């Protein structure tokens, strides 16, 4: 399948625990292109006291990567994987960290032990400020993993749900895979993304995920999750 989107990955080199250098980033992009990905939103971590890369370094790495890939069939946008904190609305309002591809969508990460109350409160704060939270790799959070009613509440509020390709295809264990399957059957999933960090242990498996989805959920569903839904992000400007 062509024209796929990857809206969550750590391919931008030298700014977090993802790609170490430009060579690795370019090899990761080649793997994405082989899988049919034609649009990537680069989402370096932003997490206080852990990952606070300088925005100037991010923009400079982004410009170089765009330049290095100008002859390849790939569109690159900048975003951020924003680990939820109490100042996140202000941080976004002041443009201190980017939304996804300059849209109103914010890839929002929580800790695996974040409480339902915290997740709901932070999602509400973003929505009230006019941002659309996309909750990153929801298969990881205890508060969501066993509580489909809570996921339904968040969707009702206006949140969207992302799982990692690795979880869908079973590379993160049977429990995570079963969770993803149920999420899809209940029609509570909006995006899959690679969350790729490197070329080995945490490589992009978007191609394998696309094959899996086509086989288990059908072609129409696959194009909705891997192409149509994410295409809306890059088409909605702030
Ligand atoms: Fe990530």
UniProtKB/TrEMBL annotation:
It catalyses: O-phospho-L-tyrosyl-[protein] + H2O = L-tyrosyl-[protein] + phosphate. The keyword NADP does not apply. GO terms for molecular function: manganese ion binding; protein tyrosine phosphatase activity. Its EC number is 3.1.3.48. InterPro entries: Caps_polysacc_synth_CpsB/CapC (IPR016667), Pol/histidinol_Pase-like (IPR016195). Keywords: Hydrolase, Protein phosphatase. The keyword Signal does not apply. It comes from the Bacteria. Belongs to the metallo-dependent hydrolases superfamily. CpsB/CapC family. This is protein-tyrosine-phosphatase.
């Amino acid at each position: 399948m062509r024209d796929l989107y990857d809206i969550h990955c750590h391919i931008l080199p030298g700014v977090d625990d993802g790609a170490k250098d430009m060579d690795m980033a370019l090899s990761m992009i080649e793997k994405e292109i082989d899988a049919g990905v034609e649009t990537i939103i680069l989402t370096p971590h932003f997490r206080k006291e852990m990952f606070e890369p300088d925005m100037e370094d991010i923009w400079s790495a982004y410009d170089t990567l765009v330049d290095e890939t100008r002859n390849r069939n790939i569109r690159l946008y900048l975003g951020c994987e924003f680990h939820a904190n109490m100042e996140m609305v202000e941080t976004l309002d002041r443009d201190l960290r980017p939304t996804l591809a300059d849209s109103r969508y914010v890839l929002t990460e929580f800790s695996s032990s974040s409480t339902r109350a915290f997740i709901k409160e932070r999602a509400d704060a973003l929505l009230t400020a006019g941002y659309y939270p996309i909750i990153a790799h929801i298969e990881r959070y205890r508060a969501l993993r066993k509580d489909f009613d809570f996921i339904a509440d968040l969707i009702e509020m206006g949140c969207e749900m992302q799982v990692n390709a690795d979880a869908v295809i079973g590379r993160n264990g049977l429990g995570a895979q079963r969770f993803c399957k149920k999420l899809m059957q209940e029609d509570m999933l909006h995006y899959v993304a690679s969350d790729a960090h490197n070329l080995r242990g945490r490589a992009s498996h978007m191609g394998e995920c696309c094959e899996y989805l086509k086989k288990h959920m059908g072609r129409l569903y696959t194009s909705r999750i891997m192409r149509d839904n994410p295409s809306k992000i890059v088409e909605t400007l702030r």
